[in-house]
What we know:
With 227 residues, this protein is mostly beta strands. The chain folds into 2 domains: 3-114, no CATH class; 138-226, no CATH class. The protein contains 3 helices and 12 strands, in the order H-E-E-H-E-E-E-E-E-E-H-E-E-E-E. Strands 3-4-5-6-2-1-7-8-12-11-10-9 form a 12-stranded antiparallel sheet. A hairpin with a 3-residue loop joins strand 9 (186-190) and strand 10. The two termini are 27 Å apart. The relative contact order is 0.16.
Amino acid sequence: MTRLASALVLLTGAALSGGDLPAVAGTERVLEGEVRVNLTPARFAISVGAAPALATLDAAAQAAGWRPGPERRVLPTPGGTLDLRSYRDGERWLMQGSVAGAGADPGVIVQAVFAGVPRWAAGIDGARNGDEAPGREPAGWPRLAAARRILHLEGRGFEAACYSTPAPPSAVLAEAVRRLAGQGWRVEPLGGRGMFAVRSGRPDTALWTRPEYGGTVFVVIATREVR
């Protein structure tokens, strides 16, 4: 199981009802539950298996009654890039995509269904100014590197936010280490592009960065368990 699926299995878990999340052949659903995406309630599922081609995901969605929509989001994860595509069924929206596996790890398929149109931050590629995605900074972290929030997730056991900044990854990590250490967090490197941060009385957190859009896209994840 990839690090992405492993982390989310530990962080959340709630019963899911209904059958409108498309089933993808050759994968196994390992987690499903409820989450708020940019403060909009959604139902989600995470499956593992060989990372399917976009055509396979499209076929699964259309077989379940969904039609392709205009939205696309490319987000960094610990296991690799998550390429999310949108689909519509009346007023409902589906976002789904996959992360390719590495080595012996299988791929991960992420799906989320919204009762209405989710609110996204506009212009995440920097081509135009746009507002932020609704939400907040997980675990009371400071805002880093003049970043703009483009995604906020909140579920049972975890909270996460994704940001875009013109600063390079090295500057984001350096600022995170400096500012968090100054606020009493203990920080440790996580590979070459991320870090852990722990502090008494706060949830454990992690940061991952990825060069993107001429700057950096980074994600902060916090567990709900407080030390």
